[in-house]
Structure formats: C-alpha cells, structure tokens
C-alpha cells in the first residue's frame, strides 16, 4: 500500500502483531480521503498557519481521520512546516505548525494538478 501513498491512505503493513489492522483501517478510510484532504487544505487556507490539532478542533472532525491528511499534504508538497511548534493543551506535546506552499495555493486556485 505504501506505493499508493499519499494519493490513498497508507498502512504500515502486515505484521504478526497487527494482523493487517493497519491495512484494514487504510481501506476503510479510502472512501473518505478526498473529502478529508479537501477539508485539511481548505482549513489551512482559511485560517492560515495551524498545527494539525488546531485544524482538527476547528473542523470538528476526529483527529484519527483528519490528522493523517496533513502528512499527505506535506508529502504532496502542498503544505510545509513553518519551523514553529505549538503545545497541544490536551496532550502536552508540541506539534509542528503548517502552512500552505505556493503549490498548495495554486492547487486551491485550480492551477496546479
């Protein structure tokens, strides 16, 4: 499944410990990926630079569904880290703040595919 990422949800693969659960989860998400990907990129466009946990809170979507879309945006060079980090008040951990790249802004405008 890794060869299809980031165009389709990824999975770490089959191990004796997971018995394919990662692959199953990726398959279950594939039908929702396009909408969630769009939500992630539009949230960054509307609100500017955000940590993924902030975008999750603004969108009202579960973190397990939306947060991986930000990794996809980075892999597609549509978003990039700003170099800033913000502390997630719920977990106490810090997260990278992301912003749209020029390519990401072009994609929203309908220019780049």
UniProtKB/TrEMBL annotation:
Region feature Disordered, mapped onto this chain: 80-99
Origin: domain of life: Bacteria
Protein name per UniProt: MarR family transcriptional regulator
Gene source species: Novosphingobium umbonatum
């Amino acid at each position: 499944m890794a060869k299809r990422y980031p165009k389709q949800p990824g999975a770490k693969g089959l191990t004796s410990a997971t018995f394919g659960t990662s692959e199953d989860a990726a398959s279950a998400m594939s039908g929702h990926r396009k909408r969630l990907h769009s939500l992630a990129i539009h949230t960054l466009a509307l609100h500017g630079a955000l940590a993924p946990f902030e975008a999750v809170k603004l969108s009202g979507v579960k973190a397990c569904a939306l947060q991986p879309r930000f990794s996809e945006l980075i892999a597609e060079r549509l978003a990039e880290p700003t170099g800033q980090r913000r502390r997630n008040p719920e977990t106490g951990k810090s997260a990278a703040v992301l912003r749209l790249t020029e390519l990401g802004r072009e994609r929203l405008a309908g220019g780049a595919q």
